[in-house]
Design brief:
The chain has 512 residues and is α/β, with parallel strands linked by helices. It has helices at 18-34, 38-47, 53-63, 70-83, 88-108, 111-162, 166-169, 182-185, 190-197, 213-223, 238-255, 271-275, 277-283, 296-299, 302-306, 318-340, 349-358, 363-379, 388-394, 407-421, 425-437, 442-457, 464-478, 483-496, 502-507; strands at residues 6-8, 15-17, 203-206, 227-232, 259-264, 286-292, 309-312, 346-347, 385-386. It folds into four domains: 6-81, no CATH class; 202-312, P-loop containing nucleotide triphosphate hydrolases (Rossmann fold); 318-394, Helicase, Ruva Protein, domain 3; 407-510, Zinc Finger, Delta Prime, domain 3, CATH 1.20.272.10. The chain contains 25 helices and nine strands. The strands form three sheets. A five-stranded parallel beta sheet has the order 4-5-6-3-7, with helices on both faces. A two-stranded antiparallel ribbon has the order 1-2. The chain has a two-stranded parallel sheet with strand order 8-9. The N and C termini lie far apart (186 Å). This is MgsA AAA+ ATPase C terminal family protein.
Length: 512
């Protein structure tokens, strides 16, 4: 008989043609192998009696009377092992298996050992965290130390500045910071244009103390391209000057740079030392800048004056002094607050004006007064504002500046003479007291009043001349300080007397 055309698959019980049955059995066995559950695999592994897929396939094929194709199956296995990659499901199953093993192991490990292991893990984790934390702490500590050192340096610098007089601390560093002397260093001023052009001739700065002569010379030193040497007539001599001359000449020959020699208090050099400056100024070896408070016509050689320009510096105005005081008050408050922790102080407008008028154009005196105010208010922590009344009580008895050997000697006696000639007894008394408080010789004043009695009063009141001579004898007999009354008596008498210059005018045309 002919064999049936279809056969039933022993695995899935489906009917297939005989020609396709072998292929179907192989694919069916492969599908069944891939669909096998993990529990079945675990049971098969533990029992050890389960058949392998290859043996099962051989048994099935032998039951059907078919021969297994070992070559194709081995090729498929090799191909599967080469191409098959772990799927997501297999990874999850593997993770669950590992977690189950960990739980099983934890049940077997005692509780104390678990705690110990947890503690060790925590310690290792804390050590790893402590390293960056320690680094942060070290950085913070270094930052604090650097801030502390910076603060210490600032305090040290403030202490150093506080030990320096205020007038020296506030020396201007440029022409823009220089207050006063607008005719010389103001806009289109003679000295400003010379300094900006960097063509510095030899010149003299003549003026009263405290108006910026030395400060202006140091500004020139910083502004120009010349080498700067500063000497003082107080502690220098001819030997020191000759050394500077040689150094200046050598420096010019080597570098081509000129030297500016600043001589402060140049009037203190004698005539012989002043003559040493003549050849170096003529040759152009160096440029000489001199500063003096005395009249150059009386204290310097005419030959030296002819080789140097003379710039007259006027006393500072009230407005300039107020600007200087405002700047100085800011500096005083900065030191008070940052160094000593004291309150700020302020000056009322009338106090500014009073100090500016009191110092008579001398900025150094104004700054010294401000330092006195600062010292006074350092003990009084409850008052921070100063008015003019406070200053008047503090500065009672301030001596007006008067130099009996300088220009003020002649200026004040001339003002006294003009006051008497103008019949102004109040002005005459003012200048009389100014001369006496400055230490003027009372006999010098008395001799001038004898001249006034003859020159300015003369024939209008001939009794004034013998009166003045009698006052001189009384002054010599009584002496000072009671002699001040005699001087005031004579000055009032002459100021109130009628005036006539007929004798003086009659003599003047006959002089040859």
């Amino acid at each position: 008989m002919t064999q049936s055309k279809e056969e039933q698959c022993p695995i899935c019980s489906k009917s297939f043609p005989v020609s396709q049955l072998y292929k179907h059995v192989n694919s069916c066995l492969d599908n069944q192998e891939s669909k096998k559950s993990p529990s079945e695999e675990a049971s098969e592994d533990t029992s050890g009696k389960a058949e392998t897929p290859a043996s099962k396939k051989r048994n099935t094929l032998s039951a059907l009377g078919l021969k297994a194709d070992t070559s194709s199956s081995s090729q498929k296995k090799a191909k599967k092992t080469e191409t098959k990659k772990p799927s997501l499901t297999s990874k999850l199953l593997e993770q669950k298996r590992l977690q189950a093993e960990i739980r099983k192991r934890d049940k077997e490990i005692p509780l104390e050992e678990q705690f110990k292991a947890i503690a060790e893990d925590a310690m290792t984790q804390s050590r790893t965290q402590e390293k960056p934390l320690a680094n942060d702490i070290e950085e913070t500590k270094s930052q604090k130390e650097s801030k502390f050192l910076q603060k210490a340096k600032e305090i040290k610098e403030l202490k150093r500045q506080a030990s320096i007089p205020l007038a020296h601390r506030l020396r201007p560093k440029s022409l823009d910071d220089f207050f006063g002397q607008e005719k010389l260093v103001g806009e289109n001023g003679a000295l400003r244009n010379i300094i900006q052009a960097d063509i510095i001739p030899s010149f003299l700065l003549w003026g009263v103390p405290g108006i910026g002569k030395t400060s202006l010379a140091r500004i020139i030193a910083k502004t120009t391209s010349c080498k700067f040497v500063e000497l003082s007539g107080i502690d220098s001599n001819a030997k020191r000057l000759k050394e500077v001359f040689v150094q200046a000449e050598n420096h010019k020959n080597l570098s081509g740079q000129r030297t500016i020699l600043f001589l402060d208090e140049i009037h203190r050099f004698n005539k012989a030392v002043q003559d040493l400056l003549l050849p170096v100024i003529e040759k152009g070896t160096l440029t000489v800048i001199g500063a003096t408070t005395e009249n150059p016509s009386f204290n310097l050689n005419n030959a030296l004056l002819s080789r140097m320009h003379t710039f007259v510096m006027e006393p500072l105005t009230v407005d300039s002094l107020i600007k200087i005081l405002t700047r100085a008050l800011f500096e005083v408050n900065r030191v008070r607050k940052n160094l000593y922790g004291l309150h700020y102080i302020s000056l009322q407008k009338d106090a500014y004006h009073y100090i500016a008028e009191l110092c008579m154009g001398d900025s150094r005196v104004a700054l010294n007064i401000l330092e006195t105010i600062n010292a006074y208010l350092s003990a009084d922590k409850f008052k921070s504002t100063v008015n003019a009344d406070d200053e008047q009580t503090k500065k009672q008895g301030v001596i007006k500046f008067y130099d009996r050997n300088g220009d003020s000697h002649y200026d004040i006696i001339s003002a006294f003479h003009k006051s008497v000639r103008g019949s102004d007894p109040n002005a005459a008394m003012f200048y009389l007291v100014k001369m006496l408080s400055g230490g003027e010789d009372p006999l010098f004043i008395m001799r001038r009043m004898i001249v006034i009695a003859s020159e300015d009063i003369g024939l209008r009141d001939s009794s004034c001349l013998p009166f003045a001579i009698a006052a001189k004898e009384a002054l010599e007999f009584v002496g000072m300080p009671e002699g001040e009354i005699i001087l005031a008596h004579c000055a009032n008498k002459l100021a109130l007397a009628p005036k006539s210059t007929k004798s003086y005018r009659a003599l003047k045309p006959l002089r040859i």
